[in-house]
Amino acid sequence: MEIIRSQRKIAAEPDVTPTLSLYRSAPSLEVRLEDFELFALDRLRVLKGISDGLSRGKKPDEMEKLVSELWRTHMRHQNASEVINKDIISHFVLRLVYCRTEDLRKWFLSIETILFRHRFRLESFDAQRMLMGEFNLPYKALSNAEFENVKDKLNQVARSINQPLPTAGAIFFKVPFEEVPDLVAGRRVFMLKGYAYVAMNQVVSLVVTQFRSHLSKALVLTNRKWTSTIREQERDRLTPIVEALSTMYLGPDYSQPKEFAEISIKDIDIVANSSFPLCMRHLFEKLREEHHLKHGGRMQLGLFLKGVGLKLDDALAFWKAEFSQKVGSERFDKEYAYAIRHNYGKEGKRTDYTPYSCQKIITSTPAVGDHHGCPYRHFGEQNLRAALGKMGVGGRAMDDILEKVQNRHYQLACTLTFEAVHASSCDTGINHPNQYFSESQKIFQSKNPPTT
User: Fold this and answer.
1) What is the distance between the alpha carbons of residues 5 and 130, in angstroms, rounded to a whole number?
2) Cα-Cα-Cα-Cα dihedral of 239, 243, 245, 247, to 10°?
3) CA–CA distance, 306 with 345 (Å, rounded to integer)
């Protein structure tokens, strides 16, 4: 399969072929359903890695290194000739996935633009000129006379940003200032009568602005097509994949405990206090307090406990001991025991159900009286402060966590909580409650190794 690129408007070397697509239109390709999902997942790993890096406040040079590493790791293909196709297909699949709500569109637009900027910078000079040609940008390079008229001003700007002074052969474009907002904000261009004078080595800003504008409009149009026709037409084939991808967990499988083989009922209060993340601590405390949880809470806590090693017999005994105080033993056996066995794959379809990821928990919508969901998202500030205080979080750490919550970086808020509670860094970030538990237990066991 080959992607046929449109004709370029700016001349370049005939053998120059950019590795970067502008994603102007979807390719006419037949894509296997397996590749449709796998390609999208690989690109999603790149985008989420970029998002996590930004949330953790990585510096520009660190982000450049991170993006290159993510792309190299996840966007390879066993057939080198298919790498470009994988890039284009995965972009359009995720465009379909992330067009469906305003929040999804905003996230996808932001991260894809960052990825595009990074990749454009890596292209050769001639390849960059070819990519510019695809946008049909109505800007001409300054003539020699125009260049001489503003040369002194261009030199002043170059000195102020520690760039080499432009030579007579330098290429500059005169563009409306609003089309290069980042260059204007950083005072990296000469401004005159509403125009910015953009050097060829700064043209990435101009191209990125065009790319972002095009993608923003395309996401809105894709959403209209999705809601009007595609969702219904593909309800038995693509729709389930598309709707699941935006909340899909991409990390390790926690359906079975790995490092820590099992926990028993006698240990559960101790490990809950030391190693449960806030979402599970809250559910555990409410279960002990009210001797009951609604379905969402039972699923979220029950599968978590299964993942950290609570065996089926102990799980039945644990839930029965609590629920019997509210509903009685007979009603528990009749109405609740089946669901617990079902979660362990012992009833119904015998499916071995997986503990919920952070993404699934964050996107849940608990109703009044429910206790499941993500406290960082669903708690008010006063309740969140109180809950974090009970975990021993305070001072600057509390302020940093609340700042992340205000910016809707809920998983990073949980990561900062982990670091505050354990006085230890967590560079990978928290993406799963069972990961929180596992990392916590590693720390406690390293500090208190078992005696023999």
Assistant:
1) 11
2) -170
3) 11
Tell me the two tokens of residue 67: 């993006």
DSSP one-letter code for 226: I
Distances (CA, A) of 266 to 150, 269, 271, 442: 79, 7, 10, 20
| Angle formed by the axes of helices 102-122 and 83-98, nearest 10° | 160
With H, G, I as helix, E, B as strand and everything else as coil, classify residue 191: strand
Reduced to 3 states (helix: H, G, I; strand: E, B; else coil), residue 263 is strand
Burial annotation 429-439 (CB, 10 A radius, 16+ → b, else e): bbbbbbbbbbb
pLDDT at 27 over 70: yes
Tokens of 140: 């001409």
Q: Which residue reads 């950019």 in tokens?
A: 18
Task: Kindly tell me if the per-residue pLDDT of 139 is higher than 90.
Answer: no
Which CATH architecture best describes the domain 33-134+208-245?
Up-down Bundle (1.20)
The pair of structure tokens assigned to 89 is 């297909």
Say if strands 190-192 and 172-176 run parallel, antiparallel, or are unpaired.
unpaired
Calpha distance 391→421 (Å, rounded):
7
Range in 237-241, 253-257, 283-287, 369-373 with the lowest mean pLDDT: 253-257
- Tokens representing residue 256 in the block: 């079975």
Assess contact for 332 and 324: CB atoms under 8 A.
yes
State how far the Cα of 286 lies from the Cα of 307, in Å rounded to an integer: 20
- The pTM assigned to this predicted structure is 0.69
CA of residue 157 relative to chain centroid, distance: 37
Strand ranges of the sheet holding 195-199, from the earlier edge strand across to the other edge: 172-176, 195-199, 190-192
Cβ–Cβ contacts within 10 Å for residue 410, how many? 22
Burial class for 166, CB neighbours closer than 10 Å (0-12, 13-18, 19+): buried
Kind and range of the H or E run holding 343:
helix 337-343
| 366-415 confidence digits (pLDDT tens) | 988 899 999 999 999 999 999 999 999 999 999 999 999 998 899 999 99
Question: Looking at the predicted structure, is the pLDDT value of residue 3 above 50?
Answer: no
Q: Which two tokens stand for residue 239?
A: 């729709």
Across 176-200, b (16+ Cβ under 10 Å) vs e yields ebebbeebeeeebbbeeeeebbbbb
CB atoms within 10 A of CB 6: 10
* Residue extents of the structural domains in the chain: 33-134+208-245, 144-204, 265-447
Residues 218, 221, 226: CA angle, nearest 5 degrees: 120
